[in-house]
Amino acid sequence: MIKLLIVDDSPLMRRLLGELFAAEADFEVAHARDGHEALEALRSYRPDVITLDVQMPNMDGLACLDRIMLERPTPVVMASAVTAEGAAATLRAIDLGAVDFIAKPGGAVSLQMDIYGPALVEKVRAAASARLPAAHRLRERVRARTGLDADASSPLPLSLVLDRLRPRRRRPIAPVSSTAAEGLVVVGASTGGPPALDALLTPLPAGFPWPIVIAQHMPAAFTGALARRLDTLTALTVTEVASPTVLVPGGVYIGRGDADVIVSRRGGVLVALSAPADPAFRWHPSVDRLTDSVLQHVAAAAVVGVLLTGMGNDGAAAMTRLRTSGGRTFAEAEETAVVWGMPGELVRAGGASRVARLEDMAGLVAAAVAGR
Fold first, then answer.
1. Is pLDDT above 70 for 180?
2. What CATH number corresponds to the domain at position 138?
3. pLDDT digits (tens, 9 = 90+) for 256-284
4. Does residue 228 share a domain with residue 127?
5. Could you give the angle at the alpha carbon of 10 between the alpha carbons of 12 and 153, nearest 5°?
6. d(CA 274, CA 287)
7. Do 116 and 191 belong to one domain?
8. 293/363 same-domain check
9. What is d(CA 260, CA 188) in angstroms, rounded to the nearest whole number?
10. Is 168 within a domain?
11. 203 and 112 in one domain?
12. pLDDT tens track for 316-368
């Protein structure tokens, strides 16, 4: 049985979520009304996975998540409002260690559970088996457990929680050049994707010779915030694809959520387009659809595919076609992936040219682009 702790200050949400998971044969459910009760249940109930509301009285979701990750790291799925403020808070939560998130429905919540519920169950079930990085905030955890942290027994103020989210410095890669007249890097990610994208992009140097197009499974309210965040962390220019966008070397293009991102050619130049989500594909933005669109306009030998952490199998089929057509494909290794669904499916299909730990991925991509 999967022991689930539902943390939400709304009695209605606690009831609806409790009924949703109680109907699943593999879940045992407990509830908490705020962050204080959640921390008590963390010690007494010892859940396998937690759903955590962002906005709560007494102790909000970010402060509670901070304590969870220091006291007893546990997979957490954040429940966030579909607002600009909610999107920013959700990305901060992922920095703190949350595995995934889901956008809370607005309006008459009970009428939307048929749509909202299955996706949440799928995410929580995947999160329960997620791999939390052992080294994540290790020094802080040791200090908290040995009593060296003066705030270890009480929730930190939000301002101090946010101070802990300074990006880690990563060793930069030397300038990269390519002999190819035109090339493209295609990246797919889902659960655990934002920090994985951080690790992939931040070592890459300014002047990177190829564009990078990314399909990260996310709702539309969150992909713009993700692009803005990554743009502050990397030497590359990161934008969300909300309208036809010409692809230029050194540009990183994040597909808009709840839609698909595809590559086409207009006036002889490559452009990224935001297309309505194709129901033939289960996840959006679809990695499979993006990769297949690239193969229609760019020679496979000039394409590098990267499949990072995520549940499901999106990207495995198209990136296998990319490899068999002469392209290079890299799958994140199981030992660093939060969820080894998507990259694992690529490996099992024989579609990965190389399997690599996340910290080695930027170097492999740079070497492939340089023709090494």
1. yes
2. 3.40.50.2300
3. 999 999 999 999 999 999 999 999 999 99
4. no
5. 145
6. 13
7. no
8. yes
9. 12
10. no
11. no
12. 999 999 999 999 999 999 999 999 999 999 999 999 999 999 999 999 999 99
* Number of independent structural domains in the chain: 2
Q: Which residues are catalytic?
A: 190, 217, 314
Residues 130 and 226 both lie in one domain? no
Residues 159 and 229 in one domain: no
CATH number of domain containing 243: 3.40.50.180
Say which residue the tokens 């709840």 belong to.
258
Token reading at 160: 């101090």
Token pair listed for 114: 């048929």
Phi then psi for residue 335, to 5 deg, are: -70, -15
Residues 133 and 35 placed together within one structural domain of the fold: yes
Q: How far apart are CA 308 and CA 317, in angstroms?
A: 14
Quote the domain boundaries for residue 121.
Answer: 2-163
How big is the chain, counted in residues? 372
Please state the three-class secondary structure of the chain as a single string: CEEEEEECCCHHHHHHHHHHHHCCCCEEEEEECCHHHHHHHHHHCCCCEEEEECCCCCCCHHHHHHHHHHHCCCCEEEEECCCHHHHHHHHHHHHHCCCEEEECCCCCHHHHHHHHHHHHHHHHHHHHCCCCCCCCCHHHHHHHHHCCCCCCCCCCCHHHHHHCCCCCCCCCCCCCCCCCCCCEEEEEECCCHHHHHHHHHCCCCCCCCCCEEEEECCCHHHHHHHHHHHHHHCCCEEEEECCCEECCCCEEEEECCCEEEEEEEECCEEEEEEEECCCCCCCCCCHHHHHHHHHCCCCHHHEEEEECCECCCCCHHHHHHHHHCCCEEEEECCCCCCCECHHHHHHHCCCCCEEECHHHHHHHHHHHHCCC
